[in-house]
Amino acid sequence: MAERAALEELVRLQGERVRGLKQQKASTEQIEEEVAKLLKLKAQLGPDESKQKFVLKTPKETLTGKYGEDSKLIYDLKDQGGELLSLRYDLTVPFARYLAMNKLTNIKRYHIAKVYRRDNPAMTRGRYREFYQCDFDIAGQFDPMIPDAECLKIMCEILSSLQIGDFLVKVNDRRILDGMFAICGVPDSKFRTICSSVDKLDKVSWEEVKNEMVGEKGLAPEVADHIGDYVQQHGGVSLVEQLLQDPKLSQSKQALEGLGDLKLLFEYLTLFGIADKISFDLSLARGLDYYTGVIYEAVLLQTPTGAGEEPLGVGSVAAGGRYDGLVGMFDPKGRKVPCVGLSIGVERIFSIVEQRLEALEEKVRTTETQVLVASAQKKLLEERLKLVSELWDAGIKAELLYKKNPKLLNQLQYCEEAGIPLVAIIGEQELKEGVIKLRSVASREEVDVRREDLVEEIRRRTSQPLCIC
């Protein structure tokens, strides 16, 4: 034990030396030499079985094994010393690691940050290599399906308030999928890879998915056909009840557990008033390995061109699910913290909003500014400063050009370019009459408003701004 403790101390000191050289930006040769010494010491130390499984080392090790087939989209990096790192793939795994490191067992949070994909955005519209995600998660031990229903309520509330068009939220459960694969005859070792194939059904035909399962993944054709009988079904709570009576699926305990939870979930969604937005879809698989229960994905619907046609999904804008085992992977004692959450693709939402505004021939707003304080004549800077200060004090988002005597035309053009909807124009005549000329940038209509009524008039006109900012 004493010998091992001495070696551990040498490893610690050598590790500090390597980190110090990296911070000093020493030469690659010098760093590599010290890293080699560190690795040699670690080899002498040998593995510590009590720690090996749970040690949190580099971001690369944090990410490995959590994303299934999506792992090929992780950006791998290597620093000067040869240490393997990765860019953040999502916000869920870091959140789970944070819970484990800080021994948190109950928290509700949201997080907006950049994530990265080694993707080919030129080949697929709406996909990016670097983009923002907005996540919302609930962690803690609660009664079944209550936090899950809240997450779906929040997802629907966000998408409805953004006014990006009709959408549908598909739901499924990993336990139903695993139970279905088991009774269909899929080997345990192929569950996750077959999941990945099934998840493509919203983009390609069943025949293409079947060919991939059989030709590329070695599944027997009759097994693929059994899977096809299930994964092409979708509906509401009636489908859940139908599958609860299915003679084959009812043989799987985990499938019955998943179906029971989904039935309860639909009850809560009805109480929340969003059941009409939810569809139980057996083809929804979600490629990430850490999901353990309910999974969901929101897709925008394309208006059908012909009578009697069903709306078509045109792309996922939000997704999530339950991941009860992820925190335990990072906890030294394997303690699990049940979690459920959702993730929204911010850039994808922005691109949809931009497209819809362009179709309506409306300009995209890039600022929250409600009104520009302008002047029609020279030598009115003091009056502009007084008025903008009054508006700021009243909570109005106002600004002015930082020039003593800007031309009125330049001020109006600035509003058009920035998407500022209103202009409060001060002139010598208006000052004498105690009014402000309020101009709509879009319609170019102008009205005289008494100075004491200006704040309320601006609030009335900008109560529901459509803004990307």
Biggest beta sheet attributes: 8 strands, mixed
Residues in helix, %? 40-55%
Task: Count the DSSP helices.
Answer: 17
Order of strands in the sheet with most strands = 3-4-10-9-8-5-7-6
Strand content: 15-25%
- Total strand count, please? 15
Rg from alpha-carbon coordinates: 29 Å
Which structural category do the helix and sheet elements fall into?
A: alpha+beta
> Could you name the ranges where pLDDT drops below 50 across 5 or more consecutive residues?
49-59, 465-469
Q: Would you tell me the overall average pLDDT?
A: 85
Q: What distance separates the N and C termini?
A: 60 Å
Shape: globular
Protein name: Histidine--tRNA ligase, cytoplasmic
Function: Catalyzes the ATP-dependent ligation of histidine to the 3'-end of its cognate tRNA, via the formation of an aminoacyl-adenylate intermediate (His-AMP). Plays a role in axon guidance.
InterPro entries: aa-tRNA-synth_II/BPL/LPL, Anticodon-bd, Anticodon-bd_dom_sf, HisRS-like_core, HisRS/HisZ, HisRS_anticodon, uS15_NS1_RNA-bd_sf, WHEP-TRS_dom
Organism: Sciurus vulgaris (Eurasian red squirrel)
Provide a descriptive summary of the structure in words.
Helix 6 runs antiparallel to helix 11. Mean pLDDT is 85; it is low at 49-59 and 465-469. The termini are far apart. It is built from 17 helices and 15 strands. The strands form 3 sheets. The chain has an 8-stranded mixed β-sheet with strand order 3-4-10-9-8-5-7-6. With 469 residues, the protein is an alpha+beta fold. It has helices at residues 2-23, 28-45, 59-63, 92-101, 146-161, 174-184, 191-198, 206-216, 221-231, 237-244, 253-272, 326-330, 346-359, 381-393, 408-418, 428-433, 454-461, and strands at residues 76-78, 84-86, 107-116, 130-139, 167-173, 234-235, 278-281, 294-302, 312-322, 339-345, 371-375, 398-399, 422-426, 435-440, 446-450. Residues 3-59 form the WHEP-TRS domain. Homodimer.
